[in-house]
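Q&A FORM
Asked by: J.P.
Topic: structure of Branched-chain amino acid ABC transporter permease

PROVIDED:
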Amino acid sequence: MSTIVLMTVTGLGLAALYFLVASGLSLVFGLADVLNFAHGLFLSVGAYATWWAAGNLPGAGSDGWGFVLAVLFGVVAGTVVAALVELVMIRPLYSRTIEQVLVTVGLSLAGVAALQAGFGADPRPFPRPSWTQQVVTLAGARVPLDRLLLIVAALVVLGLLLAFLRWTRYGLIIRAGVENREMVTALGIDVRKAFTLVFAIGGAAAALAGALSGVYFGSVSPTSGASLLIFAFIVVVIGGMGSVLGSAVAAVAVGLLQQFVNYYGTSGAGDICVVALLAVVLLWRPAGLAGKAATA
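REPLIED BY: S.T.
REPLY: Here is the structure written out as tokens.
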């Protein structure tokens, strides 16, 4: 029983990382119709900015409020990079899908190369707070506190996103634009003004995922964003484009499936089962769990 509890909490921690990356990715695609392959770069920027701030930013550190300040620095860095990418590289390419894909793929590769040139290709030990390396007994299982940190952070981000989308003006514009962008534009609302905000929100969530992934894995590397982005895309497709709740449900399913199958099966079998789950969902419900089926 203790093993099941431990695997469940660990799987939920992994699901939290997937959700933080997928939530912004889902909103960006649902509203702006941009398949952003550079989204993993925002995660890597957040991770390395947090790592750098913990050792160099006055007042920041690897424990207590110093670590919180380092994470905030990383989130701000990811947010700024995401907004700049939208303004400089994506905005001129709306409605030009092929060019978007080429630019974002190229930016992703260039970002990895830039991080390798600046920080080296080898993983760097991440400055984890001492309390995250402790364990707590939960239903007979000794659960690392860093898993619980990830779960709590994802729940907070989910709540903030839902509140923003439901009770703010720009949130309502984003929700309406995801449902029917043409109708919102016909009402005289310039939806593109919300595009930069959506990119910034997605960048902030991805940067937070980068900082927390360093806590989860204990290190940070230039390719960490690209590896997590693959499963984030799977989560977005399973959950339904533009649906934050759909991404949350899909992230839990993917994280738990991957964790249990990898533990009880052979190494890598969990990844295969995740792809199989994607195929089943697409065959059963092509628009995703929370997506709306297209009408003729």
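FOLLOW-UP: The longest strand covers residues 135-138.
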